[in-house]
Amino acid sequence: MPAIAVHGGAGVIPTAELTPERRQAFHAALEAALRAGFALMEAGGVSLDAVVAAVKVLEDDPLFNAGRGSVFTASGEHELDASIMDGSDLRAGSVTGVRQVRNPVELARLVMDRSPHVMLSGPGADDFAIEMGLEQVPNEYFSTERRRAELERHLRGEARSGDEAVLGTVGAVALDSHGNLAAATSTGGMTGKKWGRIGDSPIIGAGTYAANDCCAVSATGHGEYFIRAAVAHEIASLMRYRGMGVVAAADEVVMKQLVTLGGSGGVIAVGRDGSIAMPFNSPGMLRGAMDSSGRLETAILR
Ligand code: ASP
């Protein structure tokens, strides 16, 4: 029964940058994340631990816009967002604008498990991470040359497309053999963001949602639109109140509602029956799925 899906962001990868080496590195990272989460569940572990394990692999990989490799804000720094939800009891945790915790998804988990709150922001969230004894890193730890070049292009007004700026957010959704669903999402946000901008990724019901009666969802794309469409919760609602399956519900929101609004991106979702949906309306979405039927696949473009 265990099933897991991961994403590494939706958007455009300019073909010139999608060298065979880079393509191979994306596939390998997605597979490593899937295997990390799946192995835990195969050994009897719960989906909540599986999504944290999978997201951590991608946060630590500089290829992705989460943890190390996060995009730069307009002022040349990094402000990270992450969230997690436990479908078995609808508990959730999230952090936004954190600057020095190595793995923001672990901090979101601790907000859920060890604080009376759901969402913490900025310096307060970083203080909570210190209190919890999470690994601290200097803000430059998250920097990579590729992301710096993206910021420079952005500041010169030369970004090749809005989509490019959003590629690389990561997320995981999983169903364990106890029937528990969980979802987690982590991101550096959008290149050149300012004024303390917050996207959908740390917002429960927008970028992340999980409930055992329907599905677990993690989103990636132009966050402003995903917030307005309450994407993750909308997929759950279509399943609950219209009786749709996870594939149809995710398609309805990503390929219709978001397209009508003008929001590009996609989601990964797993239903309580173990079905996996990975729709996206952008040219590409780094994604992968693995389940107990032996399915193991990773993909980049359509
Ligand atoms: N959704 C993220 C945000 O708006 C970005 C992304 O998914 O690439 O912050």
Percent of residues in helices: 25-40%
Bound molecule kinds, no repeats: aspartic acid
Q: Looking across the biggest beta sheet, what order are the strands in?
A: 4-3-2-6-5-1-11-12
CATH class: Alpha Beta
| CATH level 3 topology | Glutamine Phosphoribosylpyrophosphate, subunit 1, domain 1
- List low-pLDDT spans: none
Question: Major beta sheet, specifics?
Answer: 8 strands, mixed
> Whole-number radius of gyration?
17 Å
By CATH, the superfamily comes out as (Glycosyl)asparaginase
Shape: globular
Mean pLDDT: 96
| Element-level helix/strand string | EHHEEHEHHEEEEHHHEEEE
Q: Judging by the overall fold, what is the CATH architecture?
A: 4-Layer Sandwich
In whole angstroms, the N-to-C terminal distance is 27 Å
Number of helices: 8
Our estimate of the beta-strand percent is: 15-25%
Helix/strand class: alpha+beta
What's the count of strands? 12
Oligomer: single chain
Number of domains: 1
